[in-house]
């Protein structure tokens, strides 16, 4: 399998680290507009191949899209970070334009690739890539709420002192602050969360407080180290693995919806089957009326930002 990572910054390098250590990738292309940066990271990584646990992945640093010819998966992490004084719409405008320019380059050399969009706001950037290229909707995946869901699992697990993998739940909607968690879906060791807490004499989990903690988690990291890397890199690796080995795992990734939940042409995270063809099916979930209303409100919020950016940039909506 040939994988490309665009952007040799903190997130791109984190993704490479997972792919080189845990993945089975024959060719890994690290592309950055700053060639020296990509080279520096690749040369550094190369020495890891001499160590026994490492696979001998062919790692190529580049600033030339031709190196991506025939790539199966391309991860887009290139873009700006939010700066002081900038609004979310300002960042969305910059990164949507960068994302579309990159995706068009990738389309020329790897039209069958599945794209995983990480650059923030990832759902908006993925929206414009899907509407401004010929990649099928199922192959333009925003990493969406996979990271937010991992945060939810970790927070609950910490409360009940269990392995996060024994907690089940989803954060859905838009990655970041415009998201929600259906409380009915949260379970611990296969048991409804309230039942588990009651029988273990632990205070019940308040879904609103939990969601607030999930939303705060990214800010708490960003405040301290001015980026977030490990969680998002692991989340991206999780998505790649599902595609690479055709897992058909259900993950809260985001794609451009096509009538599911009555929503059209909006990129939102909902439970989605991920396999070798990318987002293979969006699952229809029996949300309550209130949850459906929340999802619709989230979709309206995303639509508004998309409309503003389309008007400013001229990108197809
Ligand atoms: N979706 C998520 O959950 C999530 C989490 C963390 C970060 N992010 C986003 O990921 C992006 C990258 O974050 P980071 O910490 O790695 O940033 P970074 O500044 O460390 O790295 C960005 C890299 O992109 C490169 N770049 C910029 N424009 C480019 C272009 N047009 N072509 C090729 N390379 C280009 C830069 O040279 C730089 O090396 C940001 O948009 C950030 O907000 C998303």
TrEMBL record:
Q: Which residues form the Lactate/malate dehydrogenase N-terminal domain?
A: 1-141
Q: Which UniProt keywords apply?
A: NAD, Oxidoreductase
| UniProt keyword NAD, yes or no | yes
Positions of the Lactate/malate dehydrogenase C-terminal domain: 147-310
Q: Could you tell me the Gene Ontology terms of the biological process aspect for this record? A: lactate metabolic process
- GO MF entries: L-lactate dehydrogenase (NAD+) activity
Q: Which residues form the active site?
A: 175
Binding locations of NAD(+): 7-12, 32, 95, 118-120
Q: Which Pfam families match?
A: Ldh_1_C (PF02866), Ldh_1_N (PF00056)
Describe the task this protein carries out.
Catalyzes the reversible oxidation of malate to oxaloacetate.
User: Which family does this protein fall into?
Assistant: Belongs to the LDH/MDH superfamily.
Protein name (Swiss-Prot/TrEMBL): Malate dehydrogenase
Q: What is the organism field in this record?
A: Vibrio sinaloensis DSM 21326
What high-level taxonomic lineage is stated for the organism? Bacteria, Pseudomonadati, Pseudomonadota, Gammaproteobacteria, Vibrionales
């Amino acid at each position: 399998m040939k994988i490309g990572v665009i952007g040799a910054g903190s997130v791109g390098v984190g993704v490479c680290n997972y792919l080189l250590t845990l993945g089975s990738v024959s060719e890994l292309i690290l592309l950055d507009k700053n060639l020296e940066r990509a080279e520096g990271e690749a040369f550094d990584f190369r020495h890891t191949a001499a160590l026994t646990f490492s696979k001998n992945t062919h790692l190529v640093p580049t600033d030339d899209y031709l190196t991506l010819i025939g790539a199966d998966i391309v991860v887009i992490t290139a873009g700006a970070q939010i700066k002081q004084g900038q609004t979310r719409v300002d960042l969305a405008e910059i990164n949507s334009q960068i994302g579309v320019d990159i995706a068009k380059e990738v389309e020329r050399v790897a039209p069958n690739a599945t794209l995983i969009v990480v650059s923030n706001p990832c759902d908006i950037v993925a929206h414009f890539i899907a509407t401004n290229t010929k990649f099928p909707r199922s192959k333009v995946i925003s990493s969406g709420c996979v990271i937010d869901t991992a945060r939810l699992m970790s927070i609950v697990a910490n409360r009940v002192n269990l392995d996060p993998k024994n907690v089940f739940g989803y954060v859905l909607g838009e990655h970041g602050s415009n998201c929600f968690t259906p409380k009915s879906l949260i379970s611990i060791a296969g048991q409804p969360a309230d039942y588990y807490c009651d029988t273990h004499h632990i205070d019940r989990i308040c879904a609103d407080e939990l969601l607030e903690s999930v939303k705060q988690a990214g800010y708490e990291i960003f405040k301290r180290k001015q980026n977030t890397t490990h969680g998002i890199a692991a989340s991206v690796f999780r998505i790649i693995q599902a595609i690479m080995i055709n897992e058909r795992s259900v993950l809260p990734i985001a794609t451009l919806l096509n009538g599911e939940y009555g929503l059209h042409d909006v990129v939102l995270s909902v439970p989605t089957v991920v396999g070798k063809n990318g987002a293979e099916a969006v699952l229809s979930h029996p949300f309550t009326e209130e949850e459906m209303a929340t999802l619709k409100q989230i979709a309206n919020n995303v639509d508004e930002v998309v409309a503003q950016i389309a008007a400013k940039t001229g990108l197809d909506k």
